[in-house]
Amino acid sequence: MTTQKVRKAVFPVAGLGTRLLPATKSMPKEMLTLVDRPLIQHVVEEAKEAGIEQFIFVTSSGKTMIEEHFDRQHHLIHTLERRGKNDLLEIVLGSEIPTGHLHTTRQHTPLGLGHAVWCAKELIGNEPFAVILPDEMVLSKPGCLKQLMNVYNEKGGNVLAMMNVPKEKVSRYGILDIDPLEGRLAKINAMVEKPEPEDAPSTYSITGRYILQPEIFEILENLEGGANGEIQLTDGMAELLKEQSFYGCLFQGKRYDCGNKFGFIEANLAFSLARDDMHDEVYAMLKSFVKTDVLLS
Ligand code: UTP
Fold first, then answer.
1. N or C: which end of the chain has fewer CB within 10 A?
2. pLDDT by residue (tens digit) across 171-214?
3. All domains of the chain in start order, with CATH
């Protein structure tokens, strides 16, 4: 099947991050450090691996630090060059988004994820695109978006990352009604945002990675507020589902919700344990914590 290449990715970064206050009072949530780089850099790297060429940030006031992070810091580069710090130089240059490939658009008011995605309409134009939520980290090889891209290249249409969640927690997620799984893939029949457990069509939830067709924009433009009064991306996709195919990809890897304190701590442990240069020291650290805890109790 020939599909139009996915070249652009939207990163919605205009939310308030209230669950991580006061850390997020003046620091964008997306700039918080996961091991040794900001959350947003992790997902930009994931997008690069998946072949994304154009990076679109939906930002809001107080978030300019995000653009700065991907810019060229001439003073720092010259200093590192002068000092012969080639390893650090490589790290700094590797964190850039090439000139002309970073774009921003503004969401004046955080009206919801669906509205944030709609804000990128003019920058996307008439082509398929990816959406990545920077506070949802997936530890996997290959990256989660690359796995979705493989499905898209085979099937076309719209592709969502999905995972199985405990039944009592379905009201936190967008939940899918799917055909039986074929391997890690399933056709999606319906979706609903934050259902009560007794109303949920399954326990498969939408995760923060999407490949969408541009027809979603017209739908989002006319959407009313849904769950929590916000313009929900799930409601827009449910509408598009009446006209286009949607596939769910049960990705390989584990997802961490870095938008809350516990998920953020868990992600820092998991991502550092996954690194060869950090595993042993972090593991020993954890063991010593557990031992102390046992002695104290
Ligand atoms: P969240 O649902 O985690 O919302 O958004 P939030 O505002 O960031 O955090 P809390 O709930 O107040 O703690 C998921 C992603 O979507 C973006 C956020 O920046 C985050 O990256 N988002 C959300 C927007 O860009 N605009 C919105 O209106 C809502």
1. C
2. 999 999 999 999 999 999 999 989 999 999 999 999 999 999 99
3. 8-259 (3.90.550.10)
Per DSSP, the three-state class of 283 is helix
* Ligand 1 touching residue 18 (CB < 6 A): yes
Instruction: Looking at the CA of residue 11, tell me the nearest atom of ligand 1.
Output: 21
Q: Tell me: cis bond preceding 142? Omega within 30 of 0 counts.
A: yes
Residue 46: partners with Cβ closer than 8 Å, 6 or more residues away: 132, 138, 143, 144, 145, 146
**Is 58 exposed, middle or buried, given 0-12, 13-18 or 19+ CB atoms closer than 10 A?**
buried
Tell me, what's the pLDDT at 51? Answer: 98
Residue nearest atom 16 in ligand 1 by C-alpha distance: 12
Distance CA 107, CA 60 (A): 6
pTM listed for this prediction: 0.95
109/278 Cα distance (integer angstroms): 40
Answer yes or no: are the C-beta atoms of 137 and 33 closer than 8 Å. no
Express each pLDDT in 48-72 by its tens digit: 999 999 999 999 998 999 999 999 9
Mutate to test the pocket of ligand 1, among 59, 133, 205, 233 (most ligand atoms within 8 A of CB): 133
Query: How far, in Å, is the centroid of ligand 1 from the Cα of 226?
Result: 15
